[in-house]
Automatic annotation (TrEMBL):
This is Uncharacterized protein. InterPro entries: O-acyltransferase_WSD1-like, O-acyltransferase_WSD1_C, O-acyltransferase_WSD1_N. Pfam families: WS_DGAT_C, WS_DGAT_cat. Residues 1-10 have a biased composition (Polar residues). Residues 1-21 are annotated as: Disordered. Keywords: Acyltransferase, Endoplasmic reticulum, Transferase. One of its GO terms (molecular function) is long-chain-alcohol O-fatty-acyltransferase activity. It is a single-pass membrane protein. It comes from the Eukaryota. Residues 314-458 form the O-acyltransferase WSD1 C-terminal domain. One of its GO terms (biological process) is triglyceride biosynthetic process. The lineage of its organism: Eukaryota, Viridiplantae, Streptophyta, Embryophyta, Tracheophyta. Residues 78-263 form the O-acyltransferase WSD1-like N-terminal domain. It catalyses: a long chain fatty alcohol + a fatty acyl-CoA = a long-chain alcohol wax ester + CoA; an acyl-CoA + a 1,2-diacyl-sn-glycerol = a triacyl-sn-glycerol + CoA.
Amino acid sequence: MAFTQANQTQRQDEETVVPMSPSSQCLHSSVISLTVLFVMELETMLDEFEIVDFINNLFLPTNARFSSIVYVDDNGVPCWKKVNVNIEDHVIVPIFPKGLSTMDYDENLREYVSKIAGVKLSSNQPLWEIHVVKYPNLNGEGSVVFKISHAIGDGYSLISTVYNACRRVDDPSLPLALPNISLRVNGIEKRWLWSYLSKCINTVSDLTWHVLKGSVLQDSKSAIRSGTPGVEFRPIAISSISISMESLKQVKSKVGGTLNDLVTGVIYYTIHLYMLRKGDISRGKSMNLLVMFNMRMLKGYKSIKEMMKANICGNHVTFINVPVPCINGENNVDPLYFVTKAKEIMERKKNSYITYLTNPIIKALRIMRGTKGVSEHVHTNFRNTTTMITNLIGPNEKMAVAGHAVGSCFFIVAGIPQSLTFTTASWMGQLRLTATMEKNFIDSQLLCSCMKEAFENIFQAACGGDK
């Protein structure tokens, strides 16, 4: 079956060849190549004919990079080059065995996403694919998987682009609205000498740690970190759980802090429980969580239209190293210890200028070592730490893809050289916590049960019988 692109328009004043930003070059290189896979589980089944109209009329017009390939000019500079898109090359419809149960098809979906995550996008065409899964899952009757290179943009700009191509279920004429969120780093208003001195001391400590983790200092091997060279090329498994945002807010009201502190505490506790079940004790080990941080939060997020107009789609992500609490292998640890510890650690990280310094470090490294040197620095930071977490905030309203309502969604980032990574996506009163792990090294079913147990125990410890 052949698909043809219809009515594709281009602004006459737009150049057909645009140099790639240094960050895009860094994330699409021979050293590290990251891909975002965004899975929407639909309440009704979508077919490939509907997705073609969606791509032509809504998806392609949202971002010029979806109609561009990576092209190296005569000076050896990677560029985005506009091309005509052959949609047939980008729409994939997998075939699963017939007659399976919904549970089995749901597992087939996870295995399929795991499989395509390990397949590199072709550099001969625009760096994206859409996979239409015409089988039921536990949250609906079908699925659509957006697979997009991280070089096109950071998670926020990529998913905002996808959201911009979707429609509200209650009123398709209105755009989806993302929460208006900005971040103020604690203590920035204070003018006391000790406040600045404390921040400077913390910044020097964080900066030293950042340099060491990006060069020679590796975390310990453990039940969640194999330390295998090239782990990003090994098969992966995916597990996820859904947590009610109302339940998270109930816990937050009892223990304080932010929702991100609470989710970090859940991850800390999950790691503790999993290592305990595997007979591995964390005490005495060096274990760190790499927290991916979107710099857009510092000034407030913008809509995709505003980002395109200001030419600020791209990648605006930095990262900070956060220690994982390492304790004896005990069953009777207070679950709230991990939330309290997460809150304490994140407060300490906020009382530092490290988030503002990461980008200048990257720029200086680019001048000294070139784009490949930056790629190696980013790769080494991932490789030398135990795990990472990144998150996305979804729209306030229920959305639909090509007229099909979305029941649930989650995402993963493929190509990260770690045995275990976490992602969270919040949408319509639910938070989806997803773990991507090295297959045949980490037990995905056990880790999933540990994620469930971690939150349940934290909720019980904080709220008791409250509902």
